[in-house]
Design brief:
alpha+beta, 4 helices, peptidyl-prolyl cis-trans isomerase activity, 19% helix, Peptidyl-prolyl cis-trans isomerase, 228 residues, PPIase_FKBP_dom, 5-stranded antiparallel beta sheet
């Protein structure tokens, strides 16, 4: 059955630059072999919703109409990959915005869910580039559509992992509502604060669920009794 916009799939992929260098992969062994492995990375395939911008536009278009089990390789130009460099994504800010007022070229910062790199520091002003490092470049992706997700629990767990990096979220379905237990470690994570509304909306739009509940549990710490 051909996949369409709104379908949840688990996708394995490897992205390469024009010179063949791997810049991203869901395959752990490939990541290690190409020296792009990170212990915090999720491997084994990402869960995405086709047509919802969870991957670059060119790969998204490639997947629509395919069937589960399909694999292939596609070269994607800059416009459908990471875009062309944009002047409006270059920001000049006061160095007072940085910790201890110190900004250095190459410093990576995160702001409202976006990552930027300091490219220039002159006096008390720093230039931050929020363009993707791959902006203006063509890329090649090899991919395999591993499976389609059917149950609301699997769909929510997959998106939760995509947005937070936390696997095996505790999800309970109660009629037409879903209850998601939020690990205390991500409660104040800036990316999570920015993405939790997006996750809820995408689930509600593409399932029969009508309500998403985020539950955070705080337990009283147990004090160890001092030995007499």
């Amino acid at each position: 059955m051909a996949l369409k916009k709104g379908d949840f799939v688990r996708l394995n992929y490897t992205g390469k630059m024009e010179d063949g260098k791997v810049f991203d992969t869901t395959e752990e062994e490939v990541a290690k072999a190409e020296n792009v492995y990170t212990p915090q990375g999720l491997y084994g395939g990402d869960v995405i919703i086709i047509g919802y911008g969870h991957t670059i536009p060119g790969l998204d278009k490639e997947l629509e109409g395919k069937e589960v089990g399909a694999s292939g390789e596609v070269t994607i130009g800059p416009e459908d990959a990471f875009g062309m460099p944009r002047e409006d994504l270059m920001q000049s800010v006061s160095t007072s915005k940085f910790k201890d007022g110190k900004a250095q070229v190459g410093m990576v910062i995160e702001q409202e869910g976006r990552q930027g790199v300091v490219t220039k520091v002159i006096g008390r002003r720093a230039t931050i580039d929020f363009n993707s490092p791959l902006a203006g470049k063509s890329v090649t992706y090899s991919y395999k559509i591993e499976s389609a997700l059917e149950t609301p629990e699997d769909k929510i767990k997959g998106l939760f992992a995509l947005y937070t990096g936390v696997q095996d979220a505790d999800v309970k379905i109660d009629g037409d509502a879903a209850e998601i237990e939020i690990p205390t470690g991500i409660t104040f994570n800036q990316r999570w604060l920015f993405m939790k509304g997006k996750l809820a909306n995408e689930v509600l739009e593409n399932t029969d669920l009508k309500e998403i509940r985020y539950v955070e549990t705080v337990k009283k710490a147990e004090k160890e009794e001092k030995a007499e």
